[in-house]
Amino acid sequence: MPSDVLMRYFVWIVQKESMLTLLENRELDSELRINAYLAAMRCVDDQTMTRVQTLLESEETNQVGSFIWTHLTNLQETASPAKMSIRRILENVQLQNRFDLDKRKFSRNVELSTFSETLNVGGSVESNLIWSADSFVPRSAMVNLTVDVFGQSVNLLELGGRVQGLEDLLERVFGPDSNSRQRRAFVHDNVLNSIDRKVCHNLSPVTVSLNKTNKFD
Fold first, then answer.
1. Which structural domain, as residue segments, surrounds residue 173?
2. DSSP string of 145-161, one letter each residue
3. Which of 17, 72, 89, 124 sits most deeply, having the most CB atoms within 10 A of its CB?
4. Which pLDDT tens digit goes with each residue over 111-140?
5. What's the pTM?
């Protein structure tokens, strides 16, 4: 192996270990830990997956756990060399219901893809939505659009953004008292549940109408 290749490999191993160390530090903000996880997963192997599984088994921060779980769920459909290790984690009964995967308020990875073997053309969209454990509003987001044409992957678009300090603005609305964070979270859940009820209520007449129409057909 050429010396420059060996050096790059050594540097990557050191960087990867640093990222895993950040991920395993539960005193850090969930946003930083999630980004460290994504960096470590760029070149995944069975040893990395073993450490990820150990982390998930005792992870107490739902933001981190829900993101890793959704990312692994999407990753198992790819040609990842650690596919079997990923499947072993996802088939762990104790981990399957450990994290709240409510996409309205917890970090998650989303991946949609399609491919036509006839045309030899496909595409995929991947998105990361990351909350901080200290906020009920998203802290950062990323969208990536990739097209596969005749065996070549072309990254067409990648957009990302980060917002910080929005909680301070919301603090003025809900008050500066010590319980404001809990109050904001409580109001946030009530708003989401209210929207769900309204959507279900509006959809019910449509469903009934469709059922009545089918009876006369």
1. 165-217
2. EEEEETTEEEEEEEEEE
3. 72
4. 888 888 888 888 889 999 998 777 667 788
5. 0.70
